Request: fold
Amino acid sequence: MIKPALAEKWLKALSIIHIVGGLLLPILVFSHWSDSYFAQIAQQFPDSNPESLRFLIGIFGPTLASWGLLFYFAVSKAFESLKQKDWWFLVAAILIWGVLDTSYSLYFNIQAHLYLNGFVILSLLLPLMFTRKYFLK
Reply:
């Protein structure tokens, strides 16, 4: 088992990565780092306009940053209260995003999301699983 303080710091760090990544995403879509990602998407949607794809992914950045900010707040409150309902709130937030985003991506054969989402889901859920016993009714 890990201590709640360590899990809280880990989850807050991941939240900050989401915030920073989301703020950078509108810029990163134009870098060479995103070329292989856009090649995979263009392969699945051959009739799409590459600039439209960059716009759609780039505009998702502020949503990602906002999710990170809200998750940071939710983590702070959950680890402050240590109530079971707050633990379930965090788990539900992760699973709603993770299951639906990954399923939708796989439906459109965007394999990169399976690996990226899987890594992020595990990184978020494992600290919660290890600290569940600290969250009281």
Observations:
- The chain has a mean pLDDT of 94.
- The longest helix spans residues 50-81.
- The helical segments are 4-28, 35-44, 50-81, 84-107, 111-131.
- The radius of gyration is 17 Å.
